[in-house]
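User: two proteins, same treatment. go.

Assistant:
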Amino acid sequence: MVKSDFLRRTVVALIMAPVVIGSIVLGFPYYSLLLLMVGGMLSWEWSNMLASDRKAVYATVYTLSMATFVMMQSLLGILLILLFSIALVGIKARNEKHKYLLILGVPYISFGIGALMLLMLLYSAPAVLWLLFVVWAVDVGGYLVGCSVKGPKLAPKISPNKTWSGLFGGMGLAALIGWGGAYYFGWENSSFYVYLAAVLALVEQIGDLVESAIKRVAGVKDSSDIIPGHGGVFDRVDGLIFTAFVLLLGVVLYSMLR
């Protein structure tokens, strides 16, 4: 990455970060509005990069399914809306080239956005902030170490720029931030969050690679060009929504087994 691109990415990130953090700290309804806005943009980008000629239809359906997580407390209601949305997209996408990926977009985006909402509802703002900073740490650590050390490629056929050194660098910084965040929020057994953050860093990288693989199938470099220097919204939150869902699932399973 050339210096000018790095500076542009940094400036845009510094502008966006306070908006995101502010909505989390202020809570509802600002957080809900942020998630619905992000979800709608993800929906449009998903349809756009898969070359669908029904972008408005898919964006509406995805946003509807995500709104159920934001506004509804009924698990049955959520499942019914999701099934309806998947069926509707399936009917609309039956003649599309990437019809199965278009259908996958409904649960993929909805579960990710829904997990971010439920983390706020169940565990409040500190939990969401902790996850957000851990995910950011993965990206920063991966970039700094990967560019400095380089070395063997992580998944050259999917994402040629990612290296094993970048993965370990991201996991290391995420572990440090995970511990620091837990200590700052006064959580018990803060050392546990070192390991949790490292595992989530690995999950974040998997989420990033999943989106990279989808973009390769679609034949696009970025999900869109809406964010200067960063590509699309999906390019920024692919790891976050993947990690949020896995974290929420892990917490629920742990609570059930206790």
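Protein 2:
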Amino acid sequence: MLAQDQTDPSSQARVRIGPLALSPAISLTNAGVDNNVFNEPNDLLPKSDFTMTVQPKTDLWLHLGRSLLSGNITEDLVYYNKYANQRSANSSLKVGLLVPLTRIAFKGNAGFISTKDRPGFEIDARVHRTELSYDGAVELRALSKTFIGVRAARQRVNYDQADVFAGANLRTELNRTVTQEALTLRHQLTPLTSLTFDAGKQQDRFEFNPLRDSDSTTMTGGILFDQFAVLKGSARFGYRDFEPLVAGLPNFKGSTAAVDLSYVALGSTKVTVGAARDINYSYDINQPYYVQTGGTLSIMQQIFGPVDVVGRIGVQRLDYRGRTVASVAVANRTDYVHSYGGGIGYHLGRDIRIGFNVDKQRRTSALDARTYDDLRYGTAVTYGF
């Protein structure tokens, strides 16, 4: 949000050095067994291995007069014992600047990701890619609690030349630049809650494969809750008119969603809900995109004293769209990914949580090669300095 009256996000920082505030933390996650390292179907005898991930990260804020510079630095160090080619060091860097004036506010963000992981639910290989993104917005106070503005964003996605999945070179198929422009309207219901509406355009341009190029018109409305509200996060719902620039590929006109909300009840129960619906690009040139619709639910309950339990469930639906002149094994197929799991945790004071987790994931598809089961179990330790 760009409102000048928003709660200062640095107020709960753990470390302060003059005007600089920091919240460092380190986590050990997935320290256990992954019984299907490569997401292989059962008839290929899936490979099992011990794995763990160490994640140091820091949130930081720097006050520059009335302006606020914020950032996040995260590093994921992923280890596999037997399959060394699955190890990686994944970096994420984000920086933002908020400049609030009397009736106008400026906001800019930049981010960089360098990672070797699965890009989503479709590509099962851990492949290296980089993403460079930046955006900017200007917001003008039109009425006492109503703001109008403009926003622009650009994202560049690059895969390595050696990245191949199911016979497709991902650099050739998926390297792209995405640009967005939008008009924005926001009404501040309370100091911690805003209603928003955006109307904009999006252009997706592929570096090596213009058969995938498209233009989209989007309209989105939503509600945003500040991080200090009891109900935190955002819920956005909209409409997208997706128009490929090359004949032979069906368009998409339909609803979109992006929900990420958490609620703490009575100080002992935390409910987290996520939902999404939008277009994603496939590695397969004959079925170049799919509509992904899905949701997740997580409930954490404090049992007694420092002990808590958590349960998780999720489902994703991938609806593929094929070219009218292409020959594919299953036309307009639909794949599903179901996940569920849970765990138990023990808190050592305010800053340390030790947990044990078990998670199961299954993908079902009309293509046997795309069907798999995966079970993970192990410990996790989180420490905030």
